[in-house]
Amino acid sequence: MSLKELAPSFYNRMSNLAEAAGSGKKLLEIGCSDGLLEGKLQKKFASLTGIDTNSSDIGIARKSGIRNAEFLVANAERLPFKSSTFDKIICSEVLEHVDDDAKAIREMRRVLKGSGEAIITVPQKKYPFTFDPINAVLETLFKKHLPLGVYGYGDKRAYDYTELKRLFGKNGFEIIEIRFLSHYLLGLCENYLSQMLQPLVKTDYSNKAESGKAPIIRRDKKPPKALAKIRDFIIETDEKLFKNSRTSIDIMIIARKKKAGGKNED
After folding, report:
1. Taking the CA of residue 89 as centre, how many other CA atoms within 13 Å lie in the half-sphere pointing to its CB?
2. Crossing angle (nearest 10°) for helices 225-241 and 8-21
3. For 232, how many CA atoms within 13 A lie in the half-sphere containing its CB?
4. CB count in 10 Å sphere of residue 11
5. What is the pTM (predicted TM-score) of this model?
6. What structural domains does the chain harbor?
7. 74-93 confidence digits (pLDDT tens)
């Protein structure tokens, strides 16, 4: 566990990723950071591999004591694995950072087996006003944004569902499920708070390849139970109030690999 999990949208995203991953043989996480998700999945998969461009985060992940996990410094656009290696891939909050997102998606397809699945999250272009009111106003009036809020983590872009469907469809996938994660209440609770607190729990909150830093608060610092209960209540209330809303902080999709001709591989 980590204090990062006190952030409602982060915990909501992690919970959905772990649930969607289920169980299996070999899973790759692209953008694994300090290996927090591998800790949650270690009993559900025979083999876990995590990659990240941040060498400091990978160093922390390697010290996590997860016996069936391997952690490597690598790039999403040039995956250092043979074709048809993994049953499932998780790629969370990564595509918005890479130079060529289509190339990264093709690389995911290459290393997936058969009808393997990729579980993806990206920042939502149609985000709640409560989460980033400054950019919401700037984008509406001037079609510009500042590097904060939605774009405050070194992001090059945000996505909507239509763009994701087209992007994955053109690069060998079909989308089989979509979830809109974290709405107005979570946005209001976090606003710009998460960005301000990032330096405490992440080696490089701008998500650059090399940092050489250590987080101020250790990865395994557990959230107080009372605060965790408040977080869970906020998430549950947000989901009840805005269950049918497509305005969200994140979009999560589950995409299945297709054959070159368009049919699923068996």
Report:
1. 32
2. 80
3. 8
4. 21
5. 0.90
6. 3-257 (3.40.50.150)
7. 999 999 999 999 999 999 99
